[in-house]
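Worked example 2:
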Amino acid sequence: MGDGPAWASAGEGSWDCLSAGDACSGDEACSPRLRTLRQCVAGDGSVKLGPGARNQCETAMTALMATPLRGCRCKRGMKKEKNCLSIYWSLQQAILHGLRLVEDFPYEPEERGSDYVRLASIAAESEVTTVNRCLDAAKACNIDETCQKLRTEYVSSCIQPSARSGPCNRPKCNKALRKFFDRVPADYTHELLFCPCTDTACAERRRQTVVPGCSYEDKDKPGCLAQLRLCKADYVCRSRWAQFQYDCQPWHGSSSGCKQENHAACLLAYTGLIGSTITPNYLDNSTSNVGPWCSCSTGGHQREQCVGFLAFFHDNICLKKAMLAFGNSSDVKTGGIAPSPAADSTNAPRATAVPDVSMETALRAHIPTQVNGNERFWGDSSDSTLVSPDLSERGGAAARPLLPALPLALCWLLMTPLLLHHH
C-alpha cells in the first residue's frame, strides 16, 4: 500500500489495535479501505455501498490483510484499553471467504509466571515454622510497594459506605479490584488468590480476598445469562470472557487438561474477570470450587445455555488443574499434575460464623479519579468500566450486609501482613 508505508517491515500481530488503527487512519490508502470494511460489516453496509458492494468488500479485506490491522491485539490493563478493544471487535466481525483480520482471542499473550524462589526467600525470613503460603503471600504483598498500595486501595474502596450507593460502592470497588489484578504482578496476585489451604479458616481467608460482601455477593442471585448479556455489551468484559474461554478451554486429551497447554495463561485469564458483571470467586470455604454469583432459573434451551456457562467454571478440568498445579508449586506451561491435596476434600467442615468487626479505622485509602481523553473515532474513550452504576447496584442498600462491618476473617486477611511487617 503506497510507496513503503511505515508498517512495511512489521510482522503480523506486532501492533496493538489502537496503534494499528491510528496508523491506518493516517494512511491515504488504508483509511478508505477500512471505512469500506466497517460499512460491509455494519447492518445494511452492502446497501450503502451500492452495486458491486460485495467486490468492494472483498477488495478492502484483501488490501487490509497487508496492514498492521492484521493480527492486532490489545494489552490487558493498557491505557485506553476500551478504545483498543472497540477496534478489535469491529475487525473481528469481518470474515469474508475465510479471510479474517484478527484471531478469536483479543489480548496479547503474557508470560507472568510466579517467582517461587523469591517468594520462598521472603517466607523463609519468617520465624513461623509451619508453611502457610496464604500468610506468606500476604506478607510478600505487604513488602512490595505496588502490591501493598493497590491492595489497600481496593479493600478501602470495597468497605467504604457511600451516601449514594448504600453499604458499599460496588462500581468503585470493582474498578479498584480490576486495577489491582491488572497492575500487580502475578507473583503476588496468584499467591493471594490460589494459595493452597488445608483448613476452613485458611479457605475463608482466601475467599475473602476479593471482599465478596461488596464485589461478589448479593441478597439474591441474578440469572447467569442476564449477567452474561451485560458482560457482552461492554467491550472490556466481553474481551475478558473471550480470553478466558480461549486460555481455559478444557481438553481431556491432554495431561494438563488445557487445549492451549498453558496453566499460567488460564489463571491470568481467570483473574481478568474479577471486577466484572461475571466476577468469579470461591463458592464456599470447604472446597476449591469457583464460579460467578448467579443461577440458572430459566427453562428450555436457555437453561441449557446457562448450565453450560456455569459448567465452564464449575466443571472445567483446565481451570481446576491449573489451580491445583499452582497450589502444588508445579505451575508450568505444560506438564503433569501433582495429586490432589487433602485441602480440597468436599467433606471438610464448614467454618462457623464469626463476629463482625469494623475495618474502617484499619485501612483508609483513596483511588484517584482518572480523567479520560477526548472522544475517538473508534468509540467510547472512557476507561475500562465493566459495570455501570445503574446495573451494578442490584437490590440497593438492602441487598448486602451492612458494611464496613466485615467478617473477622477479612480483618485477619488484612491485618496479618501489617503485623508481620512490624514484627
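The first helix runs from residue 17 to 25. Strands lie at 95-96, 99-100, 280-282, 290-292, 356-358, 405-407.
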